[in-house]
From TrEMBL:
Keywords: ATP-binding, Nucleotide-binding, Transport
Protein name: ABC transporter ATP-binding protein
PANTHER family membership: ABC TRANSPORTER ATP-BINDING PROTEIN ALBC-RELATED
Coiled coil (residue ranges): none
Pfam families per UniProt: ABC_tran
Classification of source organism: Bacteria, Bacillati, Actinomycetota, Actinomycetes, Streptosporangiales
Domain of life: Bacteria
Length: 293
């Protein structure tokens, strides 16, 4: 697997508190990769290190084979749409495009203009007078027209209504396919990520909790329901992610690559959102990190 981002033992400490610890992962190139995790899990910290805005406290990080933020050529290869979809309130849409052209050596003006026109954004309108969704679309346009090899987006759709979110993500997917982009996108909205991403990385309490192709994650997680049983008695290949019990019944979300043959269990598939929630609420029986590629 070619990696757009490769980290080894990456960590970031603010004062005495680690925002990210021992982070070892490969973000596959040419894919749309989702980054999830609860508030404070370390997502923004990781993304800021990817784009070179933060220096690691420990470990290493390589982005498109180079050091993040290391020189003009490297900066040109990486686009960043930060958390508040930053635009300049006093500049018009057209002025944003002119600024983009000036600042970015690989700027694709035709792509920028086409997107603005298709979105129906008035080039003469100041960004401060656009709606949140329109501003997000403008920020995405700037990110795409920069023609990066890697586009990093930090919760770009958080403030958008469902329709605007859908349009934004549609535009992102089209751009990824058209320009052979690698995309790394953080969001709390797992259903959105499931729609646009094919690989997922989950951070929990400053650590990588799980990472893998979404198809594999969906195939390898099963919900087992049956007579009450101690999760410790499960076969070795079944790793319990979360467990709940009543007096008579146990419900376990397990990760396994083997079929479950025990007839006492009723076996169901689960959606990505349930898998993510199970890891977040898994409690003490958390298995060791497993990464599937
Ligand atoms: N500049 C900073 N100084 C001190 N602590 C910080 C700083 N930035 C982040 N942190 C802390 O680092 C941890 C990770 O924060 P980060 O913003 O990376 O999380 P996040 O997963 O992006 O959260 P959210 O989903 O809320 O945006 C948190 O505990 C946060 O309080």
């Amino acid at each position: 697997m070619t990696a757009a981002v490769r980290t080894r033992g990456l960590g970031k400490r603010y004062g005495r508190r680690w925002a990210l610890t021992d982070c070892t992962l490969d973000v596959p190139a040419g894919r749309v990769v989702g980054l999830v995790g609860p508030n404070g899990a370390g997502k923004t910290t990781l993304l800021n290190m990817v784009v070179g805005q933060l220096a690691p406290t420990s470990g290493t990080i390589e982005v498109l084979g180079g050091a993040p933020g290391g020189g003009a050529a490297q900066l040109a290869k990486v686009g960043y749409v930060a958390q508040e979809t930053p635009t300049y309130a006093g500049l018009t849409v057209a002025e944003h495009l002119r600024l983009g052209a000036k600042l970015n050596p690989r700027w694709d003006d035709a792509v920028a203009r086409r997107r603005i026109e298709r979105l129906g954004l008035d080039p003469a309108k100041k960004a401060g007078r656009l709606s949140g969704g329109q501003r997000a679309q403008l920020a995405l346009t700037l990110g795409i027209a920069k023609r990066p090899e890697l586009l990093v987006l930090d919760e770009p759709v958080a403030a958008l209504d469902p329709l605007a979110r859908r349009e934004f993500l549609q535009g992102l997917m089209e751009a990824a396919a058209e320009h052979d982009l690698s995309v790394l996108l953080s969001s709390h909205l797992v259903s959105d990520l499931e729609r646009v991403c094919d690989h997922l990385i989950m951070l929990l309490e400053a650590r990588v909790r799980v990472a893998g192709d979404i198809d594999d994650l969906l195939a390898e997680h099963l919900l087992l329901t049956g007579p009450r049983r101690d999760p410790a008695d499960l076969p070795a290949g079944q790793h319990v992610v979360s467990a709940s019990h009543t007096d008579r019944q146990s419900t376990l979300l397990v990760r396994t690559t083997e079929p479950v043959h025990d007839p006492a269990w009723s076996v169901d598939r689960v959606g990505l959102e349930d898998i993510v929630l199970a890891y977040m609420t898994g409690g003490d029986r958390r298995p060791a990190l497993e990464v599937i590629s």
